TrEMBL record:
It comes from the Archaea. It comes from Methanosarcina spelaei. GO terms for molecular function: 4 iron, 4 sulfur cluster binding; carbon-nitrogen lyase activity; magnesium ion binding; S-adenosyl-L-methionine binding. S-adenosyl-L-methionine binds at Y43, C44, D45, G95. Residues 24-244 form the Radical SAM core domain. Belongs to the radical SAM superfamily. 7-carboxy-7-deazaguanine synthase family. This is 7-carboxy-7-deazaguanine synthase. The keyword Plastid does not apply. Catalyzes the complex heterocyclic radical-mediated conversion of 6-carboxy-5,6,7,8-tetrahydropterin (CPH4) to 7-carboxy-7-deazaguanine (CDG), a step common to the biosynthetic pathways of all 7-deazapurine-containing compounds. The gene is queE.
Amino acid sequence: MTASDFTSAPIREVFCSVQGEGPYVGVRQAFVRFSGCNLNCNYCDTDFANPGTCDYEQVEGSGSFEKIKNPVSVGQLEAMLHPFKKLHSVSLTGGEPLLHADFIETLNLALPLYLESNMTLPEQARKLTEKVTYVSGDFKLPASLRDIGSEARDAHMENTVECFRLLRKNHSRDCFCKIVVDNSTELETVTSAVEAIVPYVSCVILQPETPIGRDVTNLRPSGSIQASVQSIMQLQKSLLEIIDTRVIPQTHRMWGCL
């Protein structure tokens, strides 16, 4: 690939909203949702396919989108972000933004970059160690992935831990871990995963599967339902022995914002 191949990327959406997950919930951000993902998760609620155009909501919360032809160049994206004011940071999400690490490297924005990643592509993560200020890293437990064999599970876990090591917290970067919890999540699996990344993160977020709206009995497409309050509280209590652990649902799904 040449350098010119990295100056554009397939982007699904660009909009302004508030962060709905993790310890920075409620902060105002511009969101850049990249197309494409390297995983197939049971609980995924995001349309990250590339339809050939990028949906651009210039007026936040308006629901009015302009269609921008894909791929989007670095210059185009920087101009699209310019109208958004009073931002905490720019969220790079997906899909999986690390698939487009070379493109992200070339961005020249005044605002901090907030990476939302599945943390499974260490060679791509290595390219952004000096670029991102916030890392919202998912730890995708193997049981949540479709069609993955035992050897692939081991590699998946190793790659995830390595990504957290590469993008670990330091004096200029916060890195935290989110783990989706449903009624089939096993305490032992979560504990083992957290123990492996404790040196690299500031806190762990247990994220109950959150249905749209307030109907907690709502079945998700995967057939799973929310974990019980008791089981989540027990899991949090156990993890608090080793790291700051918080329970934060997907708040944006509760009030219907992007």
